[in-house]
Write a structure and sequence with these properties.
This protein is 28% helix and 26% strand. By secondary structure, it is α+β, with helices and mostly antiparallel strands.
Amino acid sequence: MRVVVTMLVLTLGLALNGCGGDDSDSSGTDGGASTAAGVPDADGNVPFEVLRRAVMAANSGDFDGAKSWVIPDSAMGTNPMGVDLLPRKWPPYTHNGQVANVEFISDGYHGQEATVKYRLHFNDGSTFQEEASLAKHEGRWKLTFMTAEAMF
């Protein structure tokens, strides 16, 4: 029964995702549209979309916006001394705002945790493949860790 309900929810989510709305989310200026189905959170966001929104917020210099997609006190958020790590970590990761697109590769789920593989496309044509970990925090997907060497 649980499998049937899950399949219905995913099918409905995919159908609604493809219906109407404006296509402004598919422009290259905001990192491209998600093609990942995924498991939605309380707000309807799937892990790849959370990742993409965080990356593109940081890419534009909106570190507060990026921080809203990160679990507080995680390896990406603040250190034990309460120092905000995002303004220091994200600029090298985004090549100082040069991310053109975030491409979905694959994802995997383990209960309340998810792993997303993705590729960053930069304005100079270079790419970099990465993996991020997310977990549900207060019912919403949030980033906990990214494997980008430049971030750490």
